[in-house]
Write a structure and sequence with these properties.
mainly alpha; globular; transmembrane helix; transmembrane; cell inner membrane
């Protein structure tokens, strides 16, 4: 699957993201530390977490970020001497916390910080900010600095936004030492659950899962109209469901799917937008959901299994929206399937599928049997590892497979390290919001502006979540948005699970929504299309994702909350509404649509939002009416064409004189 062009793009993405490509001694140091981190967490997952696991987690994560991500672009292939300093300091701040753990936690030392506590606390905050800047860019560290400034200078602000203010020593002690700070409950989720799932996903991908995903997707969809785009949708869904990053998903799968879509006749902009939309959807598709599901389970005290069960139907509807958009676009353009000799057969597509399928079956089965997510992920991890090592259909020799395991461990550890520093920074913002009451203040403003109207509350929360999620990874986007607007949902009397899924959707959709639209930016770079136009097209393709959260708020059976009949009816009306919405945005149903027809399809889709019987019946009736109308027009055109063909066939040939 690898091509020189794709490799260059992946390398460019790595350079743009600051990811360092080390060689020599420092490469061995980084890989050894990453492997040690992975082995420690697997061991802890099997034997049980230790008291200082959160600090040990960050003890590995922070140095790995400083080793793996450069301070300057020109240092992407080497480790300058001044980058050794933050590596040492990163080990020191977590090492000090571990040594002082009993005093800090059991003797409530965070209430009486010493000078050393404050020094190491300041260092920890600065190191987290710099690690975040290197790994995910400047936007999130700026948000953390704004939060810190608000906590310190809030007593100077007038009106509802002001608060009593906090001294710097109190803030540092809270962030560094308290149970709600950097090493607190959020980091516990990262160190015990997220890290194991991330390593499981990395193992699947590193050991050939990406090739299997692409081969299977092409074999299943290549023979359909718009096959390459449908293959991209399916492949990105499969890859994204076990990936922790939208941007990485676009960069990894897009280098293969986007050129294939362009070759089949899609415009560069539409190809890039399709990949960006499909990769974004991977962050809301179980089982991993960009690691947000684990954080959500901790925040709202709901089981992980319940969250992924509730998220499944909406996620499938989201992908149906993308699927139908690319289908209608293919029909509108008259695109042909991938030629049979250029696509893998189903047998080829299913080759080695057990390396992906069996571990996921083990994971789901153990979750259903009420094992903890950590135990289920460990079992799935070792199932995948054993199949990869001992299956005769796995690529390479047994020795080659053994040699590839450290790379898989390193890939998982590096991703887990990035999520760890993000969560540590999120914990700072969450602490500020809790200390200052900012979340309640924003929620109060939303409720006052909305006048208590649920729809207006949802629309305002949607805008806030999109803005707060711009340019941020999944976990950070969700946590930041939830910290600010979740209280408004509680005050409005909405269930916590559906409310947090609503917030997650719009925090994630910021990846395709201008003006930031990171997923669209990367996809546009691969396709050679303008990023802003790509983002607009991706927003259009993902429009179903903007509708679905409103649907499950108004219609809880879409989250599996209801009888079998209620769920079936909700899914049926949801499917019809999503198809109508896709037809409206693309401008094609059974035939090209007029603006009036597009408006009627959009109206019908919106009527299916609230789950009321009368509006559902009216919306479905309108769609059936438009279907019948276009079917009749197609039949009329076909009969007219057939009649003209018959008349031409029966017409007498011109006489010799006339022909002369």
């Amino acid at each position: 699957m690898d091509t020189p062009g794709s490799n260059k793009i992946v390398e460019k993405y790595s350079e743009d993201s600051g990811k360092r490509q080390l060689t020599g001694v420092w490469f061995l140091v980084m890989r050894s530390m990453a492997v040690a981190m992975a082995v420690f967490h697997l061991y802890a997952a099997i034997t049980g977490a230790v008291n200082t696991q959160n600090a040990i987690h960050l003890l590995f994560a922070l140095p790995l970020i400083f080793l793996g991500y450069s301070c300057r672009a020109k240092d992407n292939h080497r480790l300058p001497w001044f980058d050794v300093i933050p590596v040492i300091l990163a080990i020191a701040v977590s090492g000090y916390y571990i040594m002082q753990f009993d005093r800090i936690i059991y003797e409530l030392g965070y209430l009486m910080p010493t000078t050393y506590d404050l020094v190491f606390g300041v260092l920890a905050i600065l190191l987290l900010l710099e690690a975040c800047r290197r790994a995910i860019g400047l936007a999130f560290p700026i948000l953390v600095l704004i939060a810190l400034s608000y906590a310190y200078f809030g007593n100077y602000l007038p009106g509802v936004w002001g608060h009593g203010g906090f001294g710097w020593a109190d803030l540092v002690a809270t962030f560094y030492m308290s149970p709600t700070g950097i090493y607190g409950s959020l980091m516990r989720t990262s160190s015990t659950v997220i890290v194991v799932f991330i390593m499981f996903g990395a193992l699947l991908v590193t050991t050939g899962g990406g090739d299997t995903f692409m081969r299977l997707s092409n074999s299943l969809t290549g023979g359909m109209a718009g096959g390459p785009a449908k293959a991209a949708t399916l492949c990105s869904a499969l890859f994204g469901s076990i990936s922790g990053s939208t941007a990485a998903n676009v960069a990894t799968t897009g280098v293969f799917t986007i050129p294939l879509m362009k070759k089949s006749g899609y415009s560069p902009r539409f190809a890039a937008a399709t990949e960006a939309s499909a990769s974004t959807g991977g962050q809301i598709l179980p089982p991993i959901m960009g690691a947000a599901a684990f954080v959500m389970a901790d925040v709202i005290s709901v089981s992980y299994l319940e969250i992924i069960g509730a998220a499944l139907i909406p996620a499938l509807l989201f992908y149906l929206a993308i699927w139908m958009s690319v289908h209608f676009e293919a029909k509108r353009l008259g695109l042909n399937p991938i030629p049979k000799d250029q696509r893998p057969t189903l047998r080829e597509g299913l080759f080695n599928i057990e390396t992906l399928l069996l571990p996921i079956i083990v994971l789901i089965a153990m979750l259903v049997l009420r094992y903890t997510p950590t135990t289920a992920a460990v079992a799935a991890y070792f199932t995948a590892l054993l199949i990869y090592l001992f299956s005769w259909r796995s690529p390479g020799s047994f020795t080659d497979r053994l040699k590839s395991i450290p790379a898989a461990l390193e890939a998982g550890a590096m991703t887990a390290a990035m999520i760890a520093v993000i969560i540590g920074s999120v914990a700072i913002i969450a602490s500020v919001i809790s200390l200052t009451g900012l979340g309640l203040k924003v929620s109060s403003v939303i409720l006052v502006v909305s006048g208590g109207d649920v729809l207006i509350t949802l629309l305002l929360a949607m805008v806030v979540a999109i803005i707060l999620g711009m340019g941020l990874p999944t976990v950070a986007a969700y946590m930041l948005a939830a910290s600010v607007v979740a209280a408004a949902f509680i005050e409005a009397g909405l269930p916590s699970l559906s409310s947090h899924l609503f917030i997650l959707y719009f925090a994630i959709l910021s990846g395709v929504t201008p003006p930031v639209a990171l997923a669209a930016y990367i996809g546009g770079a691969i396709a050679g299309s303008h990023w802003f136009k790509t983002a607009l097209t991706a927003t259009k393709i993902s429009l179903g994702g903007f509708l679905i959260p409103f649907m499950f708020i108004y219609h809880p059976p879409l989250l599996g909350d209801g009888t079998v009949l209620e769920i079936a009816l909700a899914v049926g009306s949801g499917i019809i509404g999503i198809v109508a919405l896709a037809a409206s945005t693309i401008g094609f149903f059974l035939r090209p649509c007029s603006w009036l027809e597009r408006g009627l399809l959009l109206t019908a889709a919106l009527m299916l939002i609230n789950g009321q019987v009368m509006t559902d019946i009216a919306g479905i009736a309108l769609i059936i009416g438009l279907f019948g109308w276009q079917y009749r027009l197609n039949s009329t055109d076909k009969n007219s064409t057939d009649k003209n063909s018959t008349d031409d066939a029966r017409a007498p040939l011109p006489s010799k004189e006339l022909s002369q």
